Amino acid sequence: MSILSRFSNDLAIDLGTANTLVFAKKRGIVIDEPSIVAIDKKNNNKVLKVGQEAKDMLGKTPEHIVAIKPMKDGVIADFEITEAMLRYFIRKAHNRRFFIRPRIIICVPSGITPVEKKAVKDSAVQARASDVFLVEEPMAAAIGAGLPVAEPSGNMIVDIGGGTTEVAVISLAGIVYARSLRVGGAEMDMAIMRYIQRKYSLLIGERTAENIKITVGSAAPLDEEVTMEIKGRDLVNGIPKVIVIKSEEVREALKESVQSIVDVVRTALERTPPELSADIVDKGIVLSGGGALLQKLDVRLREETFLPVTLADDPLRCVCMGTGKMLDEIDLLAKVSVH
Predict the structure, then answer these.
(1) Which three-class secondary structure state does DSSP give residue 192?
(2) How far is CA 210 from CA 35, 233, 254, in A?
(3) 3-9 mean pLDDT
(4) Who is most buried in 80, 82, 186, 204, counting CB within 10 A?
(5) Given the DSSP bridges, would you call strands 155-160 and 285-288 parallel, antiparallel or unpaired?
């Protein structure tokens, strides 16, 4: 049996802080669900729901049922829950068949420690993987965005996920410079929650904050500023309340998070070897990840770096698509996988 045919049941997984995506060979992306698990604390932490069904329970459960996000800042925060989540997604990808032990390629942040790498590998093995390959997220994002990573020229990718922002310069199938910043979409949501609590004494949930970010959030002034009606709990008298928030206020709430991303991109440009810098001046910077969809982020980075900035075709699925390509390109996987 050839190595390629042995990969037929195998999966590529983008194990993200906010969402987990699973790519199956010859089928493409078969799972795209939130990285959330609902457990019953009364019943020995029994797993009740995983993914979208668990997210739908967020903030609406009795005390003994808890919705947990097992990934934090792009790495495993709860080993057992991550293992349960992986097992669920692997079985779902294979139509609930028990006997399959697939090989799995999993994306990890570029700044991951050896201990964190081991936790990812161990959780996948416990979830019935026969073999586990790890690939750094910016490399997978660059491949998914269609960048010529194997060529001797500089490619710059900025992947803004739920828990981390990954900035990397790639050449000859290797990462020349990488920086992982533990600021992403989740931190932006928290910043909006803090701002509204501080300014309006209004308590809102994570889902509301995320909706505000997507609807009226921006990194630079909008062509036409807008408003949004939001509901929450008044912290003064404890009753539900409705307020109207302006896009300018949301931009103010996101100011620090956006500035952190801008700073890490500028640092990467300063530390890139001169020959590769010349390539980046010509090609510009490519943005991927859900956070890259923040309105006017490309405009802000263009203003700060004076370089062309483009959004990948499918930023949310870029990392998973790049990882999936490696199921077919074993030589490339051998070059880019980390140990």
Answers:
(1) helix
(2) 15, 17, 12
(3) 50
(4) 82
(5) parallel
Residue 201 structure tokens: 């004494």
Residue 71 tokens read as: 């990934």
Give the per-residue pLDDT at 5: 41
DSSP assignment of 58-95? TT-S-TTEEEE--EETTEES-HHHHHHHHHHHHHHHTT
Confidence at residue 44, expressed as pLDDT on a 0 to 100 scale: 84
For residue 256, what are its two tokens?
A: 């620090």
Domains detected in the chain:
3-35+73-139+319-338 (3.30.420.40), 36-69 (no CATH), 147-183+258-315 (3.30.420.40), 185-255 (3.90.640.10)
Q: Spell out the long-range contacts of 82-87 with Cβ–Cβ below 8 A and sequence spacing 24 or more.
A: 82/15, 82/119, 82/123, 83/123, 83/126, 83/127, 84/37, 84/47, 84/50, 84/127, 85/20, 85/35, 85/37, 85/50, 85/51, 86/13, 86/15, 86/123, 86/124, 86/127, 87/126, 87/127, 87/128
- The average confidence (pLDDT) of the chain is 89
Taking the C-alpha atoms of residue 321 and residue 289, their distance in angstroms, rounded to an integer, is 12
What is residue 103's predicted lDDT score, i.e. its pLDDT? 86
Cβ proximity of 333 and 135 under 8 Å = yes
Digit-coded pLDDT (tens) for 301-323: 999 999 999 999 999 999 999 99
User: Could you tell me the two tokens for 23?
Assistant: 């790519």
Q: Closest Cα partner for 280 from 309, 259, 303, 311? A: 309
User: CA 318 to CA 40: how far, in whole Å?
Assistant: 34
Quote the pTM value.
Answer: 0.88
Distances (CA, A) of 314 to 115, 143, 273: 32, 12, 29
